[in-house]
């Protein structure tokens, strides 16, 4: 039963991460995402790295590839998002979004890193 819970967490985090990355590509568009990052004072290349981390990391989590390492690698992305929203207060429903959701997501990724990949991985060797 525990392995199923671990797997459900990994699949949920993978789906959320992939969807968030694809949102940047297909809804906000890559140029729009780059512009947003630049408007916050970040260099453009960080937008590309973030998209790559979210799309690639989401796929890796869904496939159960290097779950612990991918989860840990995504934590700074979420903490960066939390830092951007810090001035908007705690609630993510606040104008401009708060920091509650990215911080919770980062903690869930840390939990996933501690638990491993669970079941339904592409390869036990690379889990």
TrEMBL record:
Location(s) in or outside the cell: Cell membrane
Principal localisation: membrane
Superkingdom to which the source organism belongs: Bacteria
InterPro entries referenced in this protein's UniProt entry, alphabetically: DoxX, DoxX-like_oxidoreductase
Keyword Transmembrane: yes
Keywords: Cell membrane, Membrane, Transmembrane, Transmembrane helix
Pfam families, A to Z: DoxX
Membrane topology, record value: Multi-pass membrane protein
TM annotation in the entry: 45-65, 72-91, 103-122
Similarity-based family: Belongs to the DoxX family.
Name used for this protein in its record: DoxX family protein
